[in-house]
Amino acid sequence: MSWQLNTELKTLNKMGADLAPKFKKLGLLTIEDLLFYFPFRYDDYSNLIKIEKLVPNILTTLRVKVELISSRRSFKKHMLITEAVVADETGQIKIIWFNQNFIAKILNIGDEIYLSGKPIITDHSAEFHNPVFEKIGKFEKATMHTNRLVPVYSSTEKLSQKQIRFLLKQILPVSAQIQEWLPQEIMLQEKFLALQQAIYQIHFPKDQATLELAKNRLKFDEIFLLQIHSGLIKKELAQLQSPKINFFATETKEFVDQLPFKLTDSQKKAAWEIIKNLNHGKPMNRLLEGDVGSGKTIAVALAIFNVLLNKLQVACMEPTEILAQQQFNVFKKNFQKYNFNIALLTSSLTYFNNEHLSKKELLKKIKDRTVDLVIGTHALIQEKVIFNNLALVVIDEQHRFGVSQRKMLKEKSQSNKNIQTMPHLLSMTATPIPRSLSLTLYGDLDLSIIDEMPLARMAIQTEIIGPEKRAQVYNFIKEQIQAGHQIFIVCPLIDPSDKLGVKAVVEEFEKLDKKIFPEISVGLLHGRLKVEEKEKIMQDFKAQKIKILVATAVIEVGIDIPNATVMMIESAERFGLSQLHQLRGRVGRSEYQSYCFLMTESESPETMRRMHAMLTAKNGFELAEKDLEFRGPGEIYGIKQSGFNDLLKIAKLTDWLLIKKAKPWVDKILHIDPTLNKFPLIKEKIKNFEMNLHFE
Ligand code: ADP
Ligand code: MG
Question: Which among 299-313, 407-421, 570-584 has the top mean pLDDT?
Fold first, then answer.
């Protein structure tokens, strides 16, 4: 059978069939999927030298023969140790592998192998610990895992790098079937690598220079498509109408005056930009950016307030039910002096003001416009909710509305039969993207930025804590509780089969509740609790009945407990930096000094570098960039809170030159033919691109 791009991995051969379920977990089903699954980093094992030339601690590859090999168990630590002596014509060296029991079964005396790693050299000896090895067969072929720039992919624990590379190598020839879709003119003028070659080289690059060419080409593709996509949205929206929202100056001033705090200038500016935008009669499509805790909610509340005074409907969507509930309470409180009807609608919570209603009754009230403001999860518009004069839709913790979301909104708000109307769209995110960058990248979005924190906020003191100082942290927590404050303790997923991390967090909870803080009320929150249970816990924590909340990362996004001053994160090295930043943002939300303790037992240089970034980085943006550097694109932002992962697989927000380079080409193409009918290949690409823009 000849392989095609759409051939499913599971049908390839025995190996494909065995590994297919694991690739499926990464979202990879076909040959094409895998070809477009790019490495996030490369280990440079191309430095091939002789043993006598070894230099300490430099990544090196040796071509050697195995002279001795044996395994034993270290009696103290129950560790399996495999030792080997290998040699080339210039000398011998000792190799040690820890806990890799299969190695002694695979390698035999006399085998010729490549070894890649960093030599440890002392006065008396030279050794490699845990080097990568690759056997050289009878007919020496190009290497995959050593002696070259070796690709490293984001993966799950069960799928090894060697397995990924092995399957990729087999399917790589199919890349010859990939169709070039960039116009000839662009290819020639920009001297881009052909797409087929770029795909080949991105996986197994010939050398660093060719790798750069390949990356450049593939990044350009993404940036170009993203810009075309934005351009099309902009044109589409420009043809639609939206309700003209009048500004109620006096009422707004009154509303602001009765707030318990003074708005920051940034908040005022952002609110004003939004309010002005709502008055145009054309759909607003705006992104509000502001770091965690910068007070986006109240800025948006001002705009919502005005829409409600115009007697039109507003829908707010939150990423989780807990947050939906929290925001529901915030809006109820903020608007309590006014006669707005506010509803909460999620898959398990249905409230109309303070009254619990059946879903059916609530839907009816939304339809007949009794409800003015409805708060729900991101799924709100997907469900069969019929609005009546929906004028503004706000989506929290998301960069932008997806294609399907916009389509649905357009359909939902067909109020006048002839004119195509659209509610105004506002998305909010804590992921900071520089203004100039987002203007180019998100040409369809207007941007408002809240770039200052409310006054009286102190910087959160962050510390990296090793096991020896754990007791001190517990004492400190007790002091903070005595001073009237509250504490978060977050546990990571430990057992990967335990998807929601329930096991780890439950164990930790029992320990803390019974042993460490027996006299303090400790609560437990994780994703597998029923919504009502979660709700109860959050209420108790808010009401300070619970002093310490032990939780999984479910509390990551948006939760607001100003009285909490300590965020203790267990096994912090297991989290991405952006995620740690979000978690840290759960404290420091009041005038009290707050603390973030990053607990880690790992002393690996990589962990230290990553943890250190938490101390030095100035903002979330810098951390997001560092995440990309350290862990690859798969890890950047929490999956649900952003659209970036879907949009850009390889291009980075900092790929300035390419972003600028793409812009005039995009303008030219959209100028020649905004329907893209003259560019069928681009049109097809855009269609696929949009299909991949799934937002949860
Ligand atoms: P985020 O931008 O992360 O969504 P929130 O809107 O939840 O932040 O606001 C965080 C906290 O700061 C809330 O408790 C809110 O009431 C408070 N807050 C907002 N604006 C101000 C301000 N100008 N001064 C003091 N506190 C404020
Ligand atoms: Mg928020």
Answer: 299-313
What spacing in Å lies between the alpha carbon of 458 and ligand 1's midpoint? Answer: 14
Quick one: pLDDT band at residue 642, thresholds 50, 70, 90? very low
Looking at all shown ligands, the one closest to residue 294's CA atom is 1
Mean local confidence (pLDDT), 169-196: 95
Q: Check if 263 has its Cβ closer than 6 Å to any atom of ligand 1.
A: yes
Q: Is 298 in the pocket of ligand 1 (CB under 6 A)?
A: yes
* Pocket mutation for ligand 1, best pick of 291, 398, 589 (most atoms within 8 Å of C-beta): 589
Q: Is the pLDDT of residue 498 over 80?
A: no
Q: Distance between CA atoms of 42 and 138, rounded to whole angstroms?
A: 27
Query: What are 664-691's pLDDT values in tens digits?
Result: 999 999 999 999 999 999 999 998 877 7
- Are 98 and 79 in contact by the 8 Å Cβ rule? The answer is yes
Which ligand 1 atom minimizes the distance to the CA of 262?
A: 23
CA 569 remoteness from chain centre: 19
- Predicted local confidence at residue 628, as pLDDT: 63
Higher pLDDT among residues 635 and 334, named by residue: 334
State the DSSP code for 641.
Answer: G
Which of the four pLDDT bands, split at 50, 70 and 90, describes residue 560? confident
Residue 66, beta-bridge partner list: 86
Nearest residue by C-alpha to atom 4 in ligand 1: 296
DSSP secondary structure letter of residue 544:
T
Amino acid code (one letter) for 125: S
Nearest to 568 by CA among 462, 483, 493, 495: 462
From the list 363, 542, 336, 335, the residue with the least C-alpha distance to 344 is: 363
Residue 541 · residue 304 · CB < 8 Å: no
CA of 294 to the centre of ligand 1 (A): 6
**Segment (H or E) for 404:** helix 403-412
Range 384-388 average pLDDT: 86
Residue 522 DSSP one-character state: E
Q: Which helix (H) or strand (E) holds 86?
A: strand 79-88
- Determine the angle formed by the axes of helices 195-203 and 208-238, rounding to 10 degrees: 120
Residues 177 and 506: their CA atoms lie apart, in Å, by 51
**N residues, the chain:** 696
The CB of 227 under 6 Å from ligand 1? The reply is no
Q: Which of 409, 396, 400 is nearest to 441 (CA)?
A: 400
What is the model's pLDDT at position 629? 66
Q: Give the end-to-end CA distance of the chain in Å, rounded to a whole number.
A: 38
Query: From the CA of 454, which ligand is nearest?
Result: 1
- The reported pTM is 0.68
**Rounded to the nearest 5°, which phi and psi values hold at 527?**
-65, -15
